[in-house]
Amino acid sequence: MATKLVENSCVLVVFLLTVLGFAARLASSSPYDHRYNVGDHVPLFVNKVGPLNNPSETYQYYDLPFCCPDPISWKKETLGEVLNGDRLTSALYELKFLEDKTGDTLLCQKKLKGDEVARFRQAIVDDFYFQMYYDDLPLWGYIGKIEDERWMLSEKGKKYYLFTHVQFDAFYNGNHIIEIRAFSDPNHVVDLTADGDINVKFTYSVFWNVTSVPFETRMDKYSRASAFAVHRQIHWFSVINSLVIIVLLMGLLILLFMRRLMNDLRKCSIGDEEEDKEVGWKFIHGDVFRHPQNLALFSAVLGVGNQLLTMICILFVLAFLGFLYPYNRGLLCTSLVFIYTLTSVVGGYSAASFHNQFSNTGWEKSVLLAGILYLGPLFVTVLTLNTIAVSYGATAALPFATLIVILLIYTFLCVPLLALGGVIGYRCKSEFQAPCATKKIPREIPPLTWYQKMPCHMFLGGLLSFSAIALELHHLYASLWGYKTCTLCSILFLMFIILILLTAMLSVGLTYIQLSAEDHEWWWRSIFCGGSTAIFMFCYSICFYVRSTMSGFMQLSFFLGYNAAMCYAFFLIFGVISFRTSLIFVRHIYQAVKSE
User: 580-589 as b/e, with b when 16 or more CB fall inside 10 Å?
Assistant: First the structure.
């Protein structure tokens, strides 16, 4: 039965990678696509506008009174693109392959009314940018500029200028488009300082240039900024800092805890009653393997933690295989949705199998809790943020149809797979093998000093682990909430492994301290001590926001909401890792006592 389960799991992983790989090929550049002949029409899609300092606060391009086609056609988008806030629409720009437009080609001429002038002026004050896509290549530009002319005697106050000309510089190699840039010409502006109607003439130009960059590497340009030597040195400094902390902790465990543990085991083997009284953790051998309180909830925590850990491992595999890369519209969001859905089997199996080790009934409740333990708070957060985005009219607001699609995916894919995993876990149940027999009446826990209680252990475990990833965490937040591109997947993966090792080592040390104080309720404490790193991560995110240039209620809400969801996921992941390590350690030492 176990062999069959492993085979089914392998088939599921292969199927998942195949589906996502196929989807990635459809979304990414391929040498067999994107081939054009001279004069071929290559559509340019306008996407969104928004303040530069608030990455979550983006609006549809035509929310500002730009020149727009009649009627406006919307590009069909994937689920990931919608979740990412992309809203691609048609534009009046005509950029035909290898056809230059050197003059001021007229886009449109329109009369801006007073309220439209005020909207453009406010966009310039908020430092708005625009984003477009041409042959799946992103390009950006600014809406306008502000000039402070108070130094001139004849002028007073600031001047607000709207850019009216966009210059497109396109680069090609053979019959492929390699790169495109948008340049807002500061010599073509219109003054919007005064209120009132104004006539504006919008123009553009196109220049084609040959390049030797191959088509297969055209996306490397967007990750080059994150691969500078200085940034690499900072990344490697972070890795070295983490390795030093690991070495110090390993030395501490070996020299202090393990040495003391060996002495305890030696005293037990001698059998001297006077010395045996000093071995506090041996006295609770009849209680240490008593099943944790709230067994159903504890099993659900293990199930969701294992599911999230599996999901992150698969994401790393896809990143190393090149399926996930910067500005691949929506593929990361799509991957998160479908990988979490398909790995529901792991969550259901882990929850049910652990629950059935202690009880043959009630495993259904554990599976049910595993289905809502993470998705429940996540859905509440998403709906709350979606309401805020709707009130702002931002592109982050999910359409009603998208919410229905997500609900259908959860109902007809996630729930059945979760139930399937639970049934497999129930069928493959096994009894919990404890090295020592458990007493019927639990032993009373003696009074604990402040440094032996859970808050102190959580602070110590979280602080030490967080100190090893603080530098790398800053780069991660800068990628998520800024405009830096995180492309060094190897560094992120290495830091993730380091964090797992730190969590495991700290879990062993803190569990030994707890057992030495004759406190046998270590199950839940190991979860909280391991997951406490996520609490420090969330606190650091608040410091990151305060030091950033982000502002506004919507941006603050999205920042706190999604960071809370991310840190909650890491809390469950590292809590499970901590518990599994503690369980192995506790089994080992009490098995050694039994053998003695």
Answer: bbbbebbbeb
Find, among 475, 382, 384, 395, the residue nearest to 51 by Cα: 395
Q: 3-class SS at 445?
A: coil
With a CB cutoff of 8 Å and minimum separation 6, the contacts of 273 are none
Beta-strand relationship, 128-134 and 44-51: antiparallel
> Residue 129: beta bridge partners?
50, 142
C-beta of residue 64 within 8 angstroms of C-beta of residue 105: no
Residue 495's identity, in one-letter code, is M
What pLDDT, in 10s, does the model give residues 227-284?
Answer: 343 345 555 666 676 677 777 777 777 766 666 666 666 665 555 544 444 456 777 7
| Contact of 345 with 352, CB cutoff 8 Å | no
- Where does 327-395 show beta strands of DSSP type E? none
Sheet containing 189-191, strands listed edge to edge, beginning at the edge strand earlier in sequence: 144-148, 158-163, 189-191
Q: How far apart are CA 503 and CA 467, in angstroms?
A: 12
Number of Cβ atoms within 10 Å of the Cβ of 522:
23
Structural element, H or E, at residue 543: helix 523-547
174: region left, alpha or beta (phi > 0 left; psi from -120 to 50 alpha): left
Contact indicator for 5, 424 with CB cutoff of 8 Å: yes
The answer to whether residues 344 and 238 touch, using CB atoms and an 8 Å cutoff, is no
pLDDT in tens, 20-77: 444 444 334 433 468 899 999 999 999 999 999 999 999 999 999 999 998 889 988 8
Preceding omega of 71 cis (within 30 degrees of 0): yes
Tokens of 137: 């290549």
Give CB contacts under 8 A, 24+ apart, made by 316-324: 316/489, 316/492, 316/493, 316/496, 317/17, 318/17, 318/20, 318/21, 318/24, 319/489, 320/489, 320/490, 320/493, 321/21, 323/20, 323/21, 323/24, 323/28, 324/24
The predicted-structure confidence for 323-340, as pLDDT tens digits, reads as follows: 876 666 678 888 999 999
Spatial separation of the C-alpha atoms in residues 506 and 464, rounded to whole Å: 8
Q: Which run of H or of E encompasses 169?
A: strand 165-173
Angstrom distance (rounded) from CA 51 to CA 63: 13
CA distance 142 to 144: 6
pLDDT reported for residue 19: 45
Task: Kindly report which listed range (158-162, 166-170, 255-259) carries the lowest average pLDDT score.
Answer: 255-259
pTM of the model: 0.86
